[in-house]
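pipeline stage [seq->struct] | target=Uroporphyrinogen decarboxylase | organism=Achromobacter arsenitoxydans SY8 | residues=357
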Amino acid sequence: MSAPRLKNDVFLRALLREPVPYTPIWLMRQAGRYLPEYRATRARAGSFMGLAQNPDYASEVTLQPLERYDLDAAILFSDILTVPHAMGLGLDFAEGEGPRFAHPIRTEDDVARLEVPDMDKLRYVFDAVGVIRRNLDGKVPLIGFAGSPWTIACYMVEGKGSDDYRLIKTLLYSRPDLLHRILEINAEATRQYLNAQIAAGAQAVMLFDSWGGVLADGLFQQFSLAYTRKVVAGLTREHEGRRVPVIVFTKGGGQWLEDIAACGSDAVGLDWTVDLAAARRRTGDAVAFQGNLDPMALFGGASAIRAEARRVLDAFGPVGKGGHVFNLGHGISRFTPPEAVAELVDEVHQYSRTLRG
C-alpha cells in the first residue's frame, strides 16, 4: 500500500533550502514530560522503556504535541541509547537519575567483545515508525534520529551522564586505539539504524551530537566529526520518491560550524550561543539551519516569548538561498508551561509569514 500524500511538506522543503510560505517549527523533546498527557501515558506504560518499546504507546506520545500545537514535523519517540542497549549494555532509566547502563565499557576485553547489534533487536523502533506514519496519515513529516557515535560512546564508557567526562577522556588520551574501535562500531551501527528507520518510513533524520562540545579543538574533528561524517555518507538519501534530508546537531559546536557544515548533511542544528546571521555568512548558505531559541525563553511569559521568536527570525534575515527551521537550541525543559509553546508556535508562523509577505 502506498504512503498517504504528505499534506504539509514545508519542513522538508526548508531543510532543502527550497521556497516556503513561512518558517516551519518543531521542538526537540516536543513529546515529553512538560505535557500532562505524556505523563499519563508514561504512567500507563509503567516505565520509560515500557513506553519506548511499545509501538502503540510510542505513536501515542509522538502525536500528542501535534494534537495541541500546529507543529510542522513529528519526531519519533525513542531514545538515543537504544543502540547500545541492543549491544547488551543493559539500559535502564531510574526515576530522577536519568539513563544508566548495567554493563558499561571499561576494559580492553569489553571493547573486544563489542559488535554492531542485530537490527532485529531494534525492531520495536522500526515498528513504531510504521505505526506513527499510519497514524499521522500524511499530516506532517516524521523525523527519525540517533545519537552521534561520540555521544553514544560517552554514555557507553561513563555508564551514565557525566559532569566531567573523566572516564571517556581518560580512554581518549591513554588508549585512543580502543576509543576509535568503539567509534567505528558505533558509526556502522548508527548507519544501519538510521537507514532502517528510513526504510520503515522516516522522512528526515537527525544526528544528535549532544556532547561534541566537550572536546578540545582538533579532538572534536578526530573523535566526533569524523565519525558523524561516516554515518552521513552511508545514509539512504532517497525514499518514497523524494529526498530524505539529514540534520546534524552539535551542542556547543559553534566554533566548528564550517567543519560541521561540510560533513555532508542538508542542515545544521545550532544552539542558542550562535548568531544565525553570522552562521549564514560563515557557510555561504551552503546548508539550511535549525534553531536556535534558548529553551529558557519559554519561561519569560507571552510577550517575551513572542519578542524572542521575532528576534531569532530577524537574525536569520531574508531567506534568499538559505533555509531555516525554527527550533530550540536544545531540548525543551520538563518544567515548561504548555501554553508557552502555543505562544511560540503561533508567533513563528505569523511573523515569518509577514517577513515573506
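stage status: PASS
auto-comment: The mean pLDDT is 96. Residues 10-356 form a domain with the TIM Barrel fold (CATH 3.20.20.210).
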